[in-house]
Amino acid sequence: MIKTLNEQPVTSLVGHTMPLNPHFFSESVVLLQHMIKISSFSGDECAVADTIQQHLLGYSVKVKRQGNNIWCFNKYYDETKPTILLNSHMDTVVPNEAYTKDPFCPEISEGKLYGLGSNDAGGCVVSLIAAFLHFYCYQGLGFNLCLAITAEEENSGENGIKSILPLLGNCELAIVGEPTLLQMAIAEKGNLVIDCVSNGRPGHAAREEGDNAIHKCLRDLEWFSLYQFPQQLKGISPVKMTVTTIKAGSQHNIVPGRCEFTVDIRHDDTFSQHEIVDIIKRNVSCQVSPRAGSLGASSVSPEHPIVKTGIAVGCKTYISPTTSDQAWLSIPSVKIGPGDSARSHSADEFIYLEEIKKGISLYVRLLETLPLMLINNPNKYKNEIKHINN
Question: pLDDT (tens digit, 9 = 90+) per residue, 15-26?
Answer without folding.
Answer: 556 678 889 999
